[in-house]
Predict the 3D structure of the following.
Amino acid sequence: MINLGAMEEGPRTFELDGRDALSAEALRRFAHEAVDWMVDYMTEPGGDGPILSPKLTKDVFDLFREELPNEGSEPGAVFEEFREKIVPDATHLQSPGNFAYIPNSTGVIGVVADILTATMNQNVSLVRGGPTAAAVEAQVVGWLQSLLGYPKSGGGVLTSGGSLANLMGLALARHRAGAGDNLTFYFSEETHSSMDRALRFLGLPPEAVRRLPTDDEFRMSPEALEEAVKEDRARGKRPAAVAATAGTIGSGAVDPLEEIAGICERHGLWLHVDGAYGALSAAAESGAWMRSGLARTDSLSIDPHKWLFVPVGTSCLLVRDVDFMRRFFTAVPEYLKVSVTEGEIGQPMEHTMELSRRFRALRLWMSFKIYGARAVREKIEDHLRWTQLFASWVEAASGFELSAPVMTSTVCFRYVPPGVESEEALDRLNEELMERVNREPGLFVSRNRLRGRFTQRVCITHLRTTEEDIRRLWEAYQKLAVTL
Ligand SMILES: Cc1ncc(COP(=O)(O)O)c(C=O)c1O
């Protein structure tokens, strides 16, 4: 057992001041209470209310308006306030009926790892800020490579989110292309907005993007890509990189990665794949077809916080050429210099644009060790199977239609009852249907437009979702559709 009590004996106070409320015993009670609450919350997040907070107005901000507290309070009283004011109006994303956006969910392992991470407060910028943390991160990145069959010769780094991983991937692509004007980047109509923002952050004008049409399955067309590259070259442009997607946010489509990789190789273009959402489906047997394409990318972003059951703030950028990455990110001022032997192992900050970084690898290290990769692969497999099942119900139901083929774990569909006079009316009807579903206890879905038309969007990546939850969702859709 951890002996916080020992801290009381010395001349130092345990926290900011020596009040009884902050004694080691009181803090231990506070921590235990929080952990007990955490486990209870995990069992029934949100109780029997809606997942989506009904307080989506500025009223919620009014709840917290107060002067900076000059004097401190009892930890127990503040914890009570957390339970009464913060929890009820949170969005209960940990609930198994969360099918919205890309459902984030974390297991207890990830949460406990986070407590330990914050406790040790390692700073994974230099190896000396946490040698074991740096080593664990290197190992976890290796495990992610192995999970997806990414080449062992590559490497990578954990990032705070997919957007940062995409930005770093695109920065590398741009650096590879060299200085000068007229650089051109190839996106598709379904490329995630983080890519557009990445280009902006890199100071590239909107004209630097050539946005390619997608095929009937919402995938980038390799023919259109090759034609565009040739045409742009002939016009004096400098094709630099392709940003393809493994699992679009819109419908979960996976671009034809192998064909696109072939084009990139022939034309000397960097291939970045935004696999933030969908690339992790390649961990499962039925997503394994994707692995050969992912292995040919120059850079690949993946988001464990979307589909590996760890807290938000855990993403990864994998790259094929680690030396190139290191050369790009390394800038060492005097105060960050290390000894020759430390220098030999490579510093975490040489792989990323962050400097101070938390020990985010612990969440994944503990999860992989406790769950085992087999259980993780099987859970993703379940998600893929249930997605197909849900899609089959939609397809078979009269009055509903699929809006896109299912390639990963997203189903886009519409309610199309007979007698609705226009597409606009169908859009309005579907938006209302989505809102009604979201008012149901324990259900949360989101929206999209495909080829301009509003669709329901159901995504299955949640750790706690079961087949029963999928059925519950479909029953709610059927029940609510007839009330419109
Ligand atoms: C395809 C895709 N790329 C990038 C992102 C951005 O990832 P993050 O929210 O982790 O920054 C998302 C988020 O949903 C996504 O679906």
